[in-house]
């Protein structure tokens, strides 16, 4: 090969930046909360109401004036007249005077005139309309109006992924529908003459297409709309014909056919009908990853080895698709982890007793490791990890 006119052996952050630069800016749409799980918020979301909407009781008991109850002791209870009840959704209609109280339940508004709560455990019923308090009512046992958020506060920011907790929060803020980014449309392709759909008989030398099954689920997790393109055999014409079917996609994600082999055609197709943004990333597993454009369509070529394709997805593709930088944990290494001179290593690890243990079989074809390892230990170029060292760990 003559000297290539595209970047080779890029670093992981460079690979992410190249991918981000090829993706389109996504438009917005408004969807009901029930359809917004996993989507990305497209605009700041203000609170339309305050929560709590009124100062309310944090306990079941009675609401009273604190001053009336200050002398209450077990041996000298204070007696108050019960003038009504305030329960969640049905506030007490009147106002409470000196020497009076109302029965109150968790989440019920504090009636006008009261400022403190005495819990039911500290009360004794005294006739039909009196209670005796064995200790003073406390002003602290309330939830102040707006103590969670106030109308007008911007509580959720544009760019935030809508997790179940944030969707619940959006509902509490008063929104029935939310502005979200359009989903990225990702065409998904497997390559290789030996790759066979699960469910078909397997002849010697063939392998089931596990990559597109795992990648499809990962793309769904990232909130993408997946266009399955199936499988292309190892011929430039067949591969080009399959790429033609990706019309309307924002990105094509393929696996296999990006290495140095005679049957690895994707790079040449990009060079003929587009551009190569980079080939090869300074990482292991996953070194041969490829990025470019084909007739304008961004194409990310993952290596075919199942472990490599998953690790490249986690380390490079996921952070770009979700807009969320990886959040490595710092954990103790229970075993040594080797360094590579010119690559960042992402070794599969098992987490046990709060420490990272080398999974053992680190070959890129060991599919079992993907289900048995819980994390990737990140070992920077040339910086070997000894047992007992702290390491950065990405959860799988
Ligand atoms: P390649 O990158 O095309 O040279 O493939 C590297 C290795 O990954 C070979 O052993 C392939 O058989 C295997 N492989 C490629 N594509 C897939 C796939 N979709 N599912 C499972 N294994 C695959
Ligand atoms: Mg192949």
Describe this structure in words.
The protein is an alpha/beta fold and 396 residues long. The chain has helices at residues 12-22, 66-69, 164-173, 211-221, 236-243, 266-273, 306-322, 368-372; strands spanning 8-10, 28-32, 45-46, 56-57, 61-64, 78-86, 100-104, 116-119, 123-125, 130-133, 142-143, 154-156, 177-181, 185-191, 195-196, 207-208, 225-232, 251-255, 274-281, 283-284, 290-294, 297-302, 329-333, 344-352, 355-358, 375-379, 390-395. The strands form seven sheets. The chain has a seven-stranded mixed sheet, with helices on both faces. A six-stranded mixed sheet has the order 8-5-7-6-10-9. It has a five-stranded mixed beta barrel with strand order 23-25-24-26-27. A hairpin with a 2-residue loop joins strand 21 (290-294) and strand 22 (297-302). It is elongated. The model has no long low-confidence stretch (mean pLDDT 95). The chain binds adenosine monophosphate and magnesium ion (MG).
Instruction: Specify the oligomeric state.
Output: single chain
The largest sheet is: 7 strands, mixed
- Rg computed from alpha carbons, rounded to a whole number of angstroms: 31 Å
* Small molecules bound: adenosine monophosphate, magnesium ion
Strand order, largest beta sheet: 1-19-21-22-18-14-17
The total count of helices amounts to 8
Number of extended strands: 27
Name the overall outline.
elongated
Give the averaged pLDDT, no decimals: 95
- The N- to C-terminal Cα distance equals 37 Å
- Category by helix and strand content: alpha/beta
Percent of residues in helices = 10-25%
């Amino acid at each position: 090969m003559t000297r290539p006119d595209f970047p080779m052996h890029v670093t992981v952050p460079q690979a992410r930046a190249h991918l981000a630069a090829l993706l389109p800016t996504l438009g917005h749409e408004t969807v009901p909360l029930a359809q917004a799980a996993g989507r990305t918020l497209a605009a700041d979301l203000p609170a339309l109401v305050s929560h709590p909407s009124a100062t309310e009781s944090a306990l079941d008991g009675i609401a009273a004036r604190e001053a009336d109850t200050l002398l209450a002791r077990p041996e000298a209870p204070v007696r108050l007249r019960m003038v009504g009840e305030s329960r969640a959704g049905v506030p007490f209609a009147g106002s409470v005077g000196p020497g009076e109280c109302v029965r109150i339940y968790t989440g019920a508004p504090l009636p006008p005139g009261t400022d403190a709560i005495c819990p039911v455990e500290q009360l004794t019923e005294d006739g039909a309309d009196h209670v005796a308090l064995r200790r003073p009512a406390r002003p602290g046992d309330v939830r102040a109006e707006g103590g969670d958020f106030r109308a007008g506060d911007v509580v959720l920011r544009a760019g935030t992924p809508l997790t179940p907790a944030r969707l619940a929060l959006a509902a509490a803020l008063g929104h029935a529908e939310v502005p979200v980014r359009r989903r990225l449309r990702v065409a998904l392709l497997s390559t290789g003459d030996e790759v066979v759909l699960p469910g078909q008989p397997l002849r010697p030398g063939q392998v089931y297409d596990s990559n597109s099954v795992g990648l499809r689920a990962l793309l769904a997790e990232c909130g993408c709309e997946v266009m399955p393109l199936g499988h292309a055999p190892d011929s430039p014409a067949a591969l080009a014909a399959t790429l033609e079917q990706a019309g309307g996609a924002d990105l094509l994600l393929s696996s296999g056919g990006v290495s140095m082999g005679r049957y690895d055609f994707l790079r040449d197709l990009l060079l003929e009908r587009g551009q190569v943004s980079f080939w090869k990333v300074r990482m292991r597993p996953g070194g041969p990853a490829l990025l470019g454009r084909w007739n304008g369509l961004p194409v990310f070529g993952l290596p075919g080895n199942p472990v490599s394709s998953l690790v490249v997805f986690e380390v490079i593709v996921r952070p770009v698709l979700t807009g969320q930088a990886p959040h490595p944990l710092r954990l103790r290494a229970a075993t040594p982890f080797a360094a590579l001179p010119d690559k960042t290593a992402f070794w599969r690890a098992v987490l046990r007793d709060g420490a990272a243990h080398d999974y053992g079989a680190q070959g890129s074809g060991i599919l079992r490791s993907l289900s048995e390892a819980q994390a990737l230990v990140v070992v920077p170029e040339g910086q070997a990890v000894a047992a007992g060292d702290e390491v950065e760990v990405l959860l799988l």
